[in-house]
Amino acid sequence: MKRKLSSLVLCMLLAFVIILSGCDLFPKNYTAYLNKSVCTLTYADGEKEEITTEAYINAFNSYGSSLVQNGSTYEEAAEQTIEVLINRYVLLNHAKTVITITDDDKKEIYDDVYTSLKSNLETYETEVRDEWNMPKPTSPEDEESDIVLYEEYVPTAEVVFVDGQYKIKLLDTTEDKQTTNFASLDAVIEQFKNYANYNDNTNNAKIRKEAYRRFLTVLKKNEQNLNLSTDYDSILRRYVEKLYKSTEENFYITSLEDYYKTEEGYSTISVGQVLNKYKSLLLQSKFKYEANAENYDTAMLESFKDVYYVVDDNYFFVSHILMKYDETSVNGELSQKEQYDNLKTEYESGYITKKVYEEKLVELANAVQAKVRNENGELTGATISANQVLKDLTNALESPEVKTDEDKANVFRDYMYKYSEDTGTVNAEYMYVVGTETSKMVESFTEEARKLNEQGTFGAISTKLVASEYGVHILFYGGKVENLFTVTDVSTFTLNDSDIEVLTNAKLSALNNKTVFDKVFELLSDDNYSIFENMNLNVLKKGMKIEKHKSVYENL
């Protein structure tokens, strides 16, 4: 169930996430009180459904309270919470008429329930570890942030030419289902209990067992005065059944989104809509930045992802491999970073000439070692001189097998992910942007980048190591920032269906495979479903009677 959700659906899902806490969820905690209706929904077929106080409190705790924290009054938050609940119930009621949950779907829901249970237990494990002063041991997952690995973009759709017209075919991007595949809630409960109570006489086992006890204690406390069985097995089962119900409802709603986005394998979004969306973004960008040069320069250098039309040719793309200075000091001698800082201070203070400064920087750069990563993006512990990286990269780019610009980009990308320590370039949609007159990069980086721009050869790299306060760099020139289409007259500018091929062939960056089409389709997909969802809700509500019982929820 790894689906992308629209903002409206997301809010409705958040309203029903069951969140454990160490305090009472319900102040009065009486069955009659919790079952009291805050809103009655009467559907067109006469069927009635009650939104209970319990549902409202859960929703308010996870949604309405955040509105209050952001400045809304309680009354405003209460009304918005009720509206979110109404929308959820209406969509869920409709989803159940068009969506069928298969046995495989149920297994996936069971897996998600089990994952949620473990996640809840981990909250209490953390609490116990803190109290017992037993920090969690590190694991490979904890080191994941140190991994630098290229991840190819997975498109959700592609443009195809069928029966004389362009259409958007949806691609299967469903992640592999989890392998647990529980067959029932009984199996989920049994495995969770076994997991929580497994005893191998280690501290981890003791901590988990205590966490499990606290977890059940809170569940029991939340059911006080409900006249329910109080044995832990019954308490856990009731909680798991609620968790399953909530997870299943979320499955219905997210499946409804997929249902309305697809027609026999093709997107309900047309090629014309994608082109119109791109045209709109392009013209908005043109109007916005032609009128304000300062905002334009800032957007180009800091947030190029939001620029769809460039008003001049003063900007270009550049990437780099960064190899940092060693900051350790050996036998009281200055570290490489300290050596650089001293050299810069001496030069800026006039103690050494520019020639000496540059010679010393070359010596320092030659001493820098690059850290080596393996094919899984993990540091191996091995190092190689930054100079050798430059030589190897130069030779690789000059190889007879490297013939196209794409070949050059692929070679550089391989070296970047193997040696670079700049995590800002990891799977970035765009390269850095530098201007011929302005730049946000450090001076030495900017100067070398502009030299590459003057040369104007895509895929060219710096012929020497470029030293800066961050380390040494090998720069890669990614070409001018250019428009896909030229707009001379906004009143007559138009795009034809065949222009979609321009968007599908234009990559956001030479270093990744995501295209302009992918980006615009994602934006349009989210926007369109939100618009459709609201329209659909309005249609579904037309034949309904909605009675809000304000006297019940306004003073909770």
Structural class computed from helices and strand pairing: alpha+beta
Give the C-alpha Rg: 30 Å
The total beta strand count reads: 13
Biggest pleated-sheet summary: 4 strands, antiparallel
Assembly annotation: single chain
Count of individual helical segments: 18
With strands numbered from the N-terminus, the spatial order across the biggest sheet is: 10-7-12-11
What's the end-to-end separation, in Å?
Answer: 34 Å
Unreliable stretches = 1-29, 140-144
Number of domains: 2
Silhouette? globular
Mean pLDDT: 90
What proportion strand?
A: 5-15%
Helix content: 40-55%
What does this structure look like?
The structure is a single chain. This protein is of the alpha+beta class and 556 residues long. The protein folds into two domains: 8-135 and 150-268 and 531-553, no CATH class; 291-515, Chitinase A, domain 3 (Roll). The protein is 51% helix and 13% strand. The chain contains 18 helices and 13 strands. The protein has helices at 7-14, 31-35, 53-69, 74-98, 103-132, 185-197, 203-222, 232-261, 271-290, 293-302, 336-348, 354-367, 386-397, 405-419, 443-455, 500-505, 516-542, 550-553; strands spanning 37-42, 48-52, 157-162, 165-170, 262-263, 266-267, 315-324, 369-373, 379-385, 432-435, 466-468, 471-480, 545-548. The strands form five sheets. It has a four-stranded antiparallel β-sheet, sandwiched between helices. A hairpin with a 2-residue loop joins strand 3 (157-162) and strand 4. The longest helix has 30 residues, at 103-132. The protein is globular.
